[in-house]
Design a protein that fits this description.
flat, 972 residues, alpha+beta, 9% strand
Length: 972
């Protein structure tokens, strides 16, 4: 019996109870608030202020902190209002009203009660400055209630009441409030129209600032949806003759808006009975303002001209002719003039003095050249003394030419003349404008001569702009083409760095002018009918220019192929292989090359997908590791074969390589053993961890187009690598791990937040890290490392992310320097020498991390930060030569800069390595393996770095530059 009871007791105590899994505790880093940071504590000091200056200082401190608890807001408003009523200094009262506008932005503030309090305080106020500040505060508070029409109507009535104030400042603030808060839609539209008529009375105020504010109010209301009545057009036109610039500016905007709003309305001219369209009259008024005394008004008028595309052609064409026009006066034939003189009677009636005076007699004082309409408006704008006006005129001329081919032909000579402007920005704008309208124009020899003269410009922007323009333009004759080729070749001798731009220019010229190139082929290729000429050097940039021109023309002119000599065909084969993007495929007799290229489905995307699927289906870890190694080799090879999936293949290969590396580290039991600190094995582990961290940074920062799942996989893998690094630093290193531990916890919080925002499930290792870190009380490096060690030992590799064809890898190509120059760059030791750098950078999201990396023979490495102005977006050109922004314009750039090289004396000339790299030190500030890996030292040429830094990622292979620092020569 006792045995039975014992057995029953043991059975009762051996029951297994399953507990429900607790939800993961989110890790949150709490930042303590600074005590006394609330501004409510300062409000109580107002009562203790003895002078107005003390009160003003307290109010300034409140304005600087401006942090209130929600329950304190009502008490704060009450105390401020009480002090307002007791204060004698107007500056303090104005500051209190300004604070009301700031407090209204706080969460939980009762804006309507603050508005009521402000209105009540203003009723007894006599200071103009305080009233103006109160109206400004009401405007700010009213904007915080955008949908409350009742409050807006009340505020508009308050502003209307104060419009009778004698101060211009108060009137301007009231008009501004009316313009911003006047209800304009629905049933309140009639009230808005009447209010606009009331505001219109202030356009005749004696103060120019009030007149300007009234016009600005009408402009604001129109922009908010209430169309201005066309009857105000005549009053606005009169304001164009105002004595003050601020009034003329706003009136000019209103004339432009009315012309665009009512273009087909008819108006009668003041000096005749002829009726013209309102847009035509407005265009003439805007043209008149090109001759205004103010530069700002002239610039504004020139800008508006380019947007008035509905104007009649006769007025538009008159802007390029300085002669006075008679379109504003009705023309009569000779028969009509004779009939008018007969019907008028031969003799004067004598009832009125001088009623028989000639009709054409005009008083000289009544003639004004300013009333010449649109006559010569663009001519005056292009000849203006200020750069701003000329720039705006060129832009407007281009905009109007794009909508009127006939006007484009007329404006061609004027744009070409702007190539000789003394300001580089104006020349660039003229070149860009002529490029845009090139589809409507054909260049003559005299125009081309002026254009080609600008090729001698020192600015590379001007020269490359001219290359793009010549690529898009059409030439009129064979002489033009010959002149263009000769000038480009001369330009290439003077500026060898322009060869790539010149090659692209001649490629486009050859494609667009095959019929002009054909008669020039014997001369260009030096073909003689009787004598054999020497074979040119195929490496000569000038000869390459001619071949690119001829081959691109031969693509559209098969007759040209019969003129080529044997060495020309050999050179074609060479250039076709080395420059396939510049030399087209030609149909040559006896050649396998064909112009007809057949596109074939490669199926590489499906191959990539199936390869990664086989890796996931591996039955055991050993086979999985072999499959991963084979997949990495195949993916690297695939990236070089098919550019369509190169980015996805490189990303997957790098991810797989990182998994293999971390697997080897975890399989080595010495990675967390303190005894390996000073051994060779410890150095190998340290270098492997550094390489692993660099792989993580490459996965995160070196690719664009990643999906949310891809980025989540990268973040979780990086978290695993950081955990491995932290455990190694704590257990097998004597370095401090405080910064690294803090960085790891920040990454844990960031990864957890990202996964929850994207709705993604964490991997098993990541979920266990979230759980352990959430339960950890002490976040010092020791406890954190002890909790991570068992998780790493039992972790299993996660499957690689599925291939994403949209992924692209960051790359860079250095075109200058070429690394082929034998002559060394000599400079005095200790000083600097500039090395021109021209590179194309693709798929870089953040150019602020891009650096020019210079490595010297003594293993010193410097990272040079290029200027922001050195980055230029890469633009594509369509078939018509227009610049088109590509889909990758925000990640593709051209870097054009000068690298400053400096060193001490060398015994002989040596080469330095120049390359481009990403410096992620600021982005990953907590990443590092002890001392020496993220240390940085400012130098004369850049930032000194140590080799092996995981935060420096190379984008291209280095280019060799031959330099020779010479000692300083002493004596005479």
């Amino acid at each position: 019996m006792a045995a039975l009871l014992k057995k029953r007791a043991l059975a009762e105590y051996s029951q297994v109870i399953q507990e429900q899994p607790k939800p993961l505790k989110k890790l949150r880093l709490v930042k303590k608030l600074i005590p006394g940071s609330s501004a409510a504590a300062y409000v109580g000091l107002l009562e203790k202020s003895k002078t107005s200056n003390d009160a003003l200082q307290v109010l300034l401190r409140i304005s600087d902190s401006l942090k209130f608890q929600e329950e304190d807001l009502a008490d704060v408003i009450k105390k401020l209002a009480e002090h307002f009523q007791q204060e004698n200094e107007s500056a303090v009262r104005a500051k209190i009203l300004s604070l009301f506008g700031d407090i209204g932005k706080e969460s939980g503030a009762d804006i309507q009660s603050i508005i009521e309090e402000t209105v009540q305080l203003l009723k007894k106020e006599e200071s103009h400055k305080v009233i103006a500040q109160g109206i400004s505060a009401l405007l700010r508070l009213g904007k915080l209630l955008p949908d409350n029409v009742t409050v807006h109507q009340k505020l508009v009535l308050v502003a209307k009441q104060y419009l009778t104030d004698t101060s211009h400042y108060v009137k301007c603030k009231c008009l501004e409030l009316i313009g911003e808060l006047l209800p304009v839609g629905g049933p309140s539209e009639s009230n808005a129209q009447s209010m606009m008529r009331y505001v219109g009375d202030y356009t005749h105020s004696e103060d120019a600032r009030v007149r300007s504010a009234a016009f600005r109010t009408m402009l604001t209301v129109h922009e908010r949806g209430l169309k201005l009545d066309s009857s105000v057009y005549s009053e606005v036109c009169l304001a164009l003759k105002d004595d003050y610039e601020i009034v003329r500016q706003v009136a000019l905007k209103l004339v432009w808006i009315l012309g665009q709003t009512y273009p087909e309305n008819s108006i009668t001219l003041a000096e005749s009975d002829e009726e013209i369209r309102l847009i035509d009259d407005a265009f003439g008024k805007v043209c008149l303002m090109i001759n205004d005394l103010s530069m700002k008004v002239r610039t504004l008028a020139a800008q508006f001209l380019g947007t008035m595309t509905l104007v009649s052609p006769k007025f538009l064409q008159q802007t390029l002719d300085k002669k006075l026009m008679s379109n504003m006066r009705k023309k009569c034939s000779a028969h009509e003039r004779a009939w008018e003189s007969v019907t008028s009677g031969e003799w004067a009636s004598g009832k009125k003095w001088a009623d028989d005076a000639p009709r054409e007699l005009v008083d000289a004082d009544s003639v004004s050249l300013m009333s010449s309409g649109s006559c010569g408006a663009f001519v005056h704008g292009l000849e203006d003394e200020y750069q701003e006006v000329r720039n705006a005129s060129v832009d407007s001329l281009c905009s109007l030419s794009l909508n009127n081919p006939q006007f484009a032909q007329m404006s061609l000579d004027f744009l070409v003349d702007m190539f000789n402007d003394e300001i580089e920005d104006v020349r660039l704008k003229a070149i860009d404008s002529l490029t845009k309208i090139s589809k409507y124009t054909v260049l003559r020899e005299d125009q081309l001569e002026t254009i080609l003269g600008a090729l001698k410009d020192f600015s590379i922007d001007v020269r490359e702009g001219l290359h793009k323009m010549l690529s898009a333009c059409r030439l009129s004759s064979k002489g033009c083409l010959q002149m263009c080729v000769e000038s480009l070749l001369d330009n290439l001798k003077k500026y060898p760095m322009d060869r790539r731009s010149t090659w692209r220019c001649l490629q486009k010229i050859g494609q667009a002018h095959p019929e002009l190139t054909l008669p020039l082929v014997p001369e260009l290729l030096a073909i003689h009918p009787f004598f054999d000429t020497p074979e040119p050097d195929v490496e000569d940039p000038a000869y390459i220019c001619i071949l690119i021109l001829v081959f691109n023309s031969a693509q559209h002119c098969p007759t040209m192929l019969q003129l080529f000599e044997e060495h020309t065909l050999k050179h074609y084969s060479y250039l076709r292989d080395t420059m396939p993007n510049l030399v087209p495929a030609l149909r040559l007799s006896g050649s396998r090359r064909s112009a007809d290229l057949v596109s074939v489905e490669t199926g590489t995307a499906q191959f990539l997908d199936s390869m990664l699927a086989r890796v996931e289906a591996a039955p055991n870890p050993r086979i999985r590791e072999e499959l991963l190694e084979a997949a990495q080799r195949d993916l690297n090879r695939l990236a070089t074969i098919d550019s369509a999936v190169a980015g996805a293949a490189q990303f997957s290969a790098l991810y797989i390589g990182s998994q293999l590396l971390i697997g080897k580290l975890l399989s080595n039991r010495l990675w967390a053993n303190p005894s390996t600190l000073a051994t060779q094995q410890g150095n190998i582990i340290r270098n492997s961890i550094t390489q692993l961290l660099q792989h993580c940074l490459k996965l995160q920062h070196l690719f664009v187009g990643l999906k949310e799942e891809d980025l989540a996989a990268v973040k979780q893998f990086k978290l695993k690598a950081l955990a491995l690094q932290l455990v190694y630093i704590v257990r097998a290193s004597n370095s401090s791990a405080l910064a690294l531990c803090e960085h790891f916890l920040e990454q844990v919080e960031d990864t957890q937040r990202y996964l929850s925002e994207q709705g993604l499930q964490p991997e098993p290792f990541t979920a266990s890290v979230f759980k352990e870190m959430g339960q950890l009380e002490d976040t010092k490096p020791g406890p954190v490392a002890r909790s991570l060690l068992p998780l790493l030992q039992v972790s299993s590799p996660a499957p690689p992310p599925r291939p994403n064809i949209a992924v692209r890898m960051s790359t860079a190509v250095i075109t200058e320097p070429t690394g082929e120059v034998d002559a060394a760059l000599k400079f005095t030791a200790g000083l600097v020498v500039g090395v021109p750098l021209d590179a194309e950078v693709c798929n870089v999201r953040n150019t602020a991390t891009l650096r020019v990396k210079v490595k010297y023979p003594d293993q010193q490495t410097q990272l040079i930060v290029p200027k922001r102005s050195d980055f230029r977006p890469m633009l594509l050109s369509d078939s018509e030569g227009n610049n088109v922004t590509s889909d990758t314009s925000d990640t593709d750039f051209r870097l054009l800069t000068t690298v400053l090289v400096s060193h001490q004396v060398w015994t002989e000339a040596c080469t330095i390595d120049v390359s481009l790299a990403l410096d992620l030190t600021d982005v990953e500030s907590g990443l590092g393996l002890g001392t020496g890996l993220t240390g940085r030292k400012g130098g004369a040429a850049g930032i000194a770095k140590t080799d092996g830094d995981p935060c420096v990622i190379d984008l291209c292979k280095p280019v060799k530059v031959y330099v020779s620092p010479k000692p300083v020569k002493r004596g005479i």
